[in-house]
Design brief:
Blueprint (H helix, E strand, L loop, with lengths): L11 H11 L29 H4 L1 H15 L3 E4 L8 E4 L9 H27 L1
Length: 127
């Protein structure tokens, strides 16, 4: 049998341990970004000495999104809604309709067609 030494915490001792485990580390209130001319007040939870703007994290996001947009080429498509059939330019190869109005009209036409087919099928089954 294995022997273990255990300590039992009662009352306030248990609360002190739990409070220390749950506390979020803070780095001081009222700190200002150290970059010359920047007066941004830093969060008490920010471990850095500079603000997010001068930390450089925003630059990575900005450059990543810029590359995505430049990779896409503009293509010309024809609207999938037959009564329209207009040509439109887009960078999204999955886009089928020239406008939201055409997209919604095409959806309504599909729904109405399905209802007609369903009611015809119900009549045929009954007879």
């Amino acid at each position: 049998m294995e022997s273990r030494s255990t300590r039992v915490l009662h009352g306030r001792g248990l609360h002190r341990v739990a409070d220390n485990m749950l506390k979020t580390k803070t780095y001081g209130i009222g700190r200002i970004c150290t970059v010359d001319g920047c007066g941004t007040r830093l969060s008490a939870y920010n471990p850095s000495r500079v603000c997010a703007l001068h930390g450089g994290a925003w630059q990575d996001d900005f450059h990543r999104s810029g590359r995505k947009a430049s990779q896409r080429e503009e293509i010309t498509c024809r609207c999938a809604f037959e009564p329209c059939g207009r040509e439109f330019a887009t960078t999204n190869p999955a886009k089928k309709y020239c406008t939201d109005a055409c997209r919604m009209k095409a959806f309504q036409a599909r729904v109405m067609s399905a209802r007609r087919m369903g009611s015809v099928g119900a009549i045929r089954r009954a007879s």
